[in-house]
Amino acid sequence: MIIFRIALTVFALALIFFGVIMMIAPTPFGFVFLILGFLLLATVAPSFIRGLRRRWRWFDRRLQALEKRSPRWIAKILRRTAPRREEDDPHKDRASAKR
What we know:
This protein is mainly α. It has two domains: 1-44, no CATH class; 46-83, no CATH class. Helix content is 74%, strand content 0%. It contains six helices and no strands.
């Protein structure tokens, strides 16, 4: 199973890489490869995407906007990669919240 996940991760990164290179071409088909690679990477390694969303807030805001406009199956993938926010944390200290 772990070999399959590694192979899918490598394939997703290859799609992203070729998508970026093909974006330079006159036909905008590289955009399709880029999106497919990103969605595949988000399903295989959601923690990696979650780290990117924590690091780059602009990226997180764009994915939040995309989540609202996308079909349910894509929104579900994007919701899994959302970073945990302080207000969403169920283990937050309730004593400090009462003060």
